[in-house]
Amino acid sequence: NVTIKINGVETSVPAGTTILEAAHMANIEIPTLCFMKEINAIGACRICMVEANEGRGNRLVAACVYPVSPNMQIFTNTPRVLEARKRTLELMLSTHERNCLSCVRSGNCELQQLAKDLGVEDAGIYDGVTNHYEIDGTAAHMIRDNNKCILCRRCVAACGITQSVGVIGANERGFKTFIGSAFDMGLGETSCVSCGQCIAVCPTGALAEKDSTSEVLAAIADPSKHVIVQTAPAVRAGLGECFGYPIGTDVEGKMVAALRRLGFDKVFDTDFAADLTIMEEGTEFIDRLQNGGKLPLITSCSPGWIKFCEHYYPDMTENLSSCKSPQQMFGAVAKSYYAEKMGIDPKDMVVVSVMPCTAKKFEIGRDDQAANGVPDVDIALTTRELGRMIQRAGINFQALLDEEFDMPLGLSTGAGVIFGATGGVMEAALRTVVEVLEKKELPSLDFQEVRGMEGIKEATYNVAGTDVKLAVASGLANARMLLDKVNSGEADYHFIEIMGCPGGCINGGGQPHVSPAERNFGDYRAKRASVLYSNDAAKAVRKSHENAGVKELYDTYLEKPGSHKAHQLLHTTYVK
Ligand code: HC1
Fold first, then answer.
1. Rounded CA gap, 302 and 317, in Å?
2. Which one of 357, 501, 572 would you pick to mutate in the ligand 1 pocket, going by the greatest count of ligand atoms within 8 A of its CB?
3. What is the pLDDT of residues 395-413, one digit of tens each?
4. Which domains does the chain have, with CATH numbers?
5. What is the ipTM of this complex?
6. pTM of the full predicted structure?
């Protein structure tokens, strides 16, 4: 350890710690606009400047990259520091489109917050020539508005390093520099996988999901439409953050109440379809295991991962489960089984989904996702969009009393809800597959080895005399590492779960933005995941094959898992 002083107060931190980390340990948050822990220590934005004295007088240094040294004195709050930050910010603002009133990030924009904190009074003092960019709306899920970009390059790091996709970077040089795809192609023309991790880290409104809230409002206002909504597992673990609840608060009941007040005809749960997915995918796994099918079987619920597989590992698409994602299974069942039950023409139904994910916006428009001759799902919203709709409708979210989902598509088990955390699909599948193969009840339903936020997890379970080898990866750079091990023959798993976003859907690209301090130093992913595991533990039924609603669906409509009708509605195909 080394002893240093921060603002005159002595403290001791591990050698090699950066000033930024040391200050955090001493409960002082130094503002950052580009820093991302472990992946983007480039010191580009110069907002984290502090004064450091190593015996040669005070010098301004960038706290995110400058390491502490013995007896260093650090000053984070002097007039010189504040002036340096303010000046840098004013320069950024001089080329930033400042239409804060209508910006989607107004109220939680990091740039706006800093301008307020630093007392930037007239952002126009450096005004002069600026660049003007076309908004890129070519991708199904998001827009890029470079007029609001501050060139922090966090999106570039998220895309290239976290996700190993790398379809964006800096184009041109100097004053003309802008972030975009190679040759300035539209994002929709590249091999972007729609994960939205770039949006999650963007400090401003330069990147945002495509907003579909007005389409939803129009559908609700149309009396000829029966408009139903489904909510993904992870939404209940994130939505509360839009209304000031601490990270890790379960707001399932309030969310249901709010959706009813927005005017949806029925409020259902994607978790129902997650249970259904386990029935289909579990059956597929057992079939492949026992009949020499293609292994490892790889899960198919995460559309960012599916697109990644199709673009970057086309030879492995045969390993993918043919199951549609729960979002899509829900829509297919709603527009067939439920529509028939209710006597509604599927053409008059609008299925809206609320997802923690931006790739779900892309998924709804994929080929082979319209089992009933109409799209399985019509509109996919992110958690953030739902938050905005509730806010705009004037619904006092905090004051709402908990309400229950509608039946029959609102019934779910603990296995369905843990889908939203990395390892959850695997655990849910194991609860069913092990019981089916061993023909007896599991003594414990908790498969701890596949829980937790590590990027890659491995486990082997002896199931009915066979050692079943499993792996779980979240985040696409981790997926790449795992798949390379499989391809090289270094690993021979039977079953793999892959989720596109690090930590799984709880950290999806459509979840509420978290502060830089939480993102870099907090454990927001684990806190959100704990909501799902508590929700699971509190359920009376925790195994997908014991979901009474799913059983009835098979008994009265689909016949059995893997049936012809189940295949027609619930399975899909991939492109190479
Ligand atoms: Fe997910 Fe899924 S868990 S993909 O992570 O399989 O988005 O939450 O809805 O479809 O159920 C997301 C979450 C979600 C699907 C399910």
1. 14
2. 357
3. 999 999 999 999 999 999 9
4. 2-77 (3.10.20.740), 92-209 (3.30.70.20), 227-570 (3.40.950.10)
5. 0.94
6. 0.96
